[in-house]
Amino acid sequence: MRDDRLEAKREAETLDEPATEARALAERLGLDPYPVRYWVVGHDEMNELIAYGGFQRRYPHWRWGMNYERQRKKDRHGLGKAFEIVNNDDPSHAFLQESNTEADQKAVITHVEAHADFFANNDWFGLYADRGADGPNAAARLERNADRLAAIGRRADVDRDEVERLIDAVSALEDTIDQHSPVDAARGPAKTERDDDLDKPAAELEAQIEELDLSDAVRRDVFDDEWLEAQEDGVEPEEPRPDVLAFLRDHGKRYDPDTGKAVDREPWETTVIDAIREEAYYFAGQKVTKVMNEGWATYWESVMMGGEGFAGPDEFLTYADHMSRVLGSPGLNPYKLGFELWTHVELQAARRDVIDKLLRVEGVTPKNFHSEIDLDEVLTALEPDPAIAGAGPATLDELAELAAAGDPRVDAETVDRALSARDGDPETAPDIEQYPWKLLTYEGLAERHYALSRPEHRSALRNVSRSTVAEQARYMFDVDRYASVEAALEAVDRTAGWERMYEVRESHNDVTFIDEFLTDEFVRNRNYFTYEYSHAGEEFRVGSVDADDVKRKLLLQFTNFGKPTITVLDGNFKNRGELLLGHQYNGVALDEAQAKATLKRVFELWGRPVNLATIRTEYTEQEIKRAQRRDREPDGTEVGVRLQYDGGDVTEHDLDPDIKARIAAEEVDYDTKPDEWLA
Fold first, then answer.
1. C-alpha–C-alpha distance, residues 97 and 47, integer Å
2. Which of 238, 398, 446, 670 meets the CB 3.0–4.6 Å disulfide criterion with 495?
3. Strand-strand pairing, 651-654 and 637-645
């Protein structure tokens, strides 16, 4: 063990310079990351960190051991080596695998710097904690929860098995929070008049009943003791409550098998629920931005490692292999999808800026745009200045001339120090051989990596349609006219692509990101399609290549963490204090086996019968045979179902048509803007 620690320490020392230079380059590129503390760890420690979600301590529970065993087996059999893990915190802590090659270590460091920037600047991570002077302070919060829950488990008056049972129940529901609201938003909701009535003690309600002067028979049949107890406990939200876990915390009880009734929780039980719910909010930011975050880190890693030569000549092939494996992973790959979407955002913004400038040239209109503008000459003019593109020792004199003229693309101080070193003052020499980016500013680097000058994007301007040009012209103000194409191109903003990316990074999550930027052009150029299971053919088939279908399919996988959306419809269902949950049906049926198992967990947090309203599509054998003969899908019939659990077996009941209407939807409404999601 000691030898392992010494080896890790030596490895860490060799990474001091790459980590320092990667941070400097990231900031030069416009990133603004949290400080990052790097650690080098062995396989076992890395597997432990992954099991704990990126932290060194968590509350005691069996699932961490299960996570560890799963990751250890994947690591052993080469099915999932972890190169690094980084947490959202200020400072962020990044753990690098000791067995990584030097090229891999550099790659993950650049990847981590971009993650730390995303954590620090995306609004969805701000829902967990305000970004004040102390930052999110996640490690301290999770460690505090670990101490509190461990202390509860050690108490003499608390059964350790009951603590674990409660953690199991809450963990099964950790995705039923309202990820669109801050962690504390569910506390202290404004009460309605109906809530005030429900909060009155049973004695006060009984006094009101006495004033009605009812007969003894009616009094016994309608307003019995059980009814009074339900009125005291029940809650009816005016609107469906998306934060199911907070509702259960505030209004739930514990079922007492000795009395067969619901009893008030012990304070320690609420502490457990609050701790796990708070941690669910911490991880929610990562879940709702998985595609954006991984794509963002992959994009900037590629700029730094490949575009800026952070991977040396002897390391580049190793890095290229690393990147190809990351982007080539099968299935829904958030790295690949995110990387391609961010590249699309950048390209669209750069192209829009150029078209905007060209449409301001005297005599150019949407109708004659393609005939009046020589796009090959435009692309040639948009190539980076040779001194900027080849910035390094060989272009030092050209860069010095630009710096003397006050060119904002050149770092005049670094150029001056490099010239002094070349003329005999090596003590001040910047390392421009290994890190030539030091000679350029943000504007210079933006020109060097300008989207429209990259070979893979040279057709982007040429393929723009007349309708796209006309659409853009509709929203132009008639100002800043140019006498020639040359004058217009001189005004092109080479930072437009990156600036748009930074703007999008701040407020979007995966759903709004995909909704806005997964365009027809994106789907067509990258050959995206949907596939689905055919009931008629009993096989998977290509469903559609239409952009709207692809978008809808992806959105369904990312809305609500890719889980069914469940809300609280009624906390006093059937006037007996039962809980009624509603599955917001969007055409995708529940996994009813999982739903029934989860209902049993809800019962443990409610203490009284619980119900779940959902919709399923049922097919008759005759419909399926007819569809098979015609080689099409059967239509089926949508049927409302209410599942109920009262401590015995899960039973199934017909669903009231009014409740079915409340949970049914023809399609999911994705037409929302980021600020509306964050309201």
1. 10
2. 446
3. antiparallel
Q: What is the mean predicted confidence (pLDDT) over 647-667?
A: 89
pTM for this model (two decimals): 0.86
Q: What share of the chain is helix, strand, coil (3-state, %, to 5)?
A: 55, 10, 35
* pLDDT tens figures, 100-148: 889 999 999 999 999 999 999 999 988 776 655 556 688 888 999 999 9
Instruction: For residues 253 and 251, give the distance between their C-alpha atoms in angstroms, rounded to a whole number.
Output: 7
Contact 614, 649 (CB under 8 A): no
Rounded to an integer, what distance in angstroms lies between the CA atom of residue 190 and that of residue 441? 52
Residues pairing with 654 in the sheet: 641
* Cβ atoms of residues 614 and 584 within 8 Å: no
32 band by pLDDT with thresholds 50, 70 and 90: very high
User: CA-based diameter of the chain, in Å?
Assistant: 109
- Chain-centroid distance of CA 82 in Å reads 20
Residues 164-210 pLDDT 10s: 999 999 999 999 998 888 777 665 443 333 334 434 444 555 555 55
Inter-residue contact 147 to 56 (CB < 8 Å): no
Rounded distance, CA 299 to CA 293, Å? 10
DSSP, collapsed to helix, strand or coil, labels residue 212 as coil
CB atoms within 10 A of CB 132: 9
CA distance 384 to 377: 14
Q: Label each residue of 313-380 as H, E or C.
A: CCCHHHHHHHHHHHHCCCCCCHHHHHHHHHHHHHHHHHHHHHHHHHCCECCCCCCCHHHHCCHHHHHH
Dihedral of CA atoms 257, 263, 267, 272 in degrees, nearest 10, equals 50
CA nearest 38: which of 99, 147, 104, 113? 113
Q: Beta-carbon neighbour count of residue 6 at 10 Å?
A: 10
Element (DSSP H or E) covering residue 177: none
